[in-house]
Description:
2 helices, five-stranded antiparallel sheet, alpha+beta
Amino acid sequence: MFPVLPSTRIPAPRPVRRVSAATRAGAVAAGAAVVATTGCGMFTPGLSGEMPDDITVTSPLMQEGQPLPEVYTCEGVESEDGAEIAGVSPPLSWSGMPEGAGSTALVVDDPSEATVFWVVHDLDPQLVELRQNTVPTDAKQAQNSAGEAEYTAPCPDEDDLYEYRFTVYALEEGLGLPDGAELETTLEAISERAIARGTLVSESE
């Protein structure tokens, strides 16, 4: 049985947008800087990079190993009234949080492109889900590779291979960082406090 969710702020759906080559290059460059500071791989929490994968991450609208639904990309979909909806964050659920966890964080990234699309932290450890396109009012969002403190939807090119990871981290304690904190600083803080994790991977077929 899920606990009562805290109140949420629900941003309006954003219009379809396409990311220019220059913007994408800048995001990749930012992601590459994170790789340089966090060691092997896009994001390796813990001093040794090893920790229990005890957390199970699921979504009612995404399946492990399947393509990311278009509504969660910059391509978007057309609603029943003809409006185009794109770039909304997907709903996620998780279970298996270790006892004693003081906080939860979510990192959404593409390891092949060294790009982070979303970082949410200081989530209540009793929380077991994020609803579509919502962020709890008491949580915080850090900058992503594009320098924005929000979910920046991936823009996969047709026929491109990709792997988008939605990773939930159990932390010993909250990060103590403000909204909009720098990506590198936030990932390092998550790395220092992470005690368990779990990942849902969406990938091209």
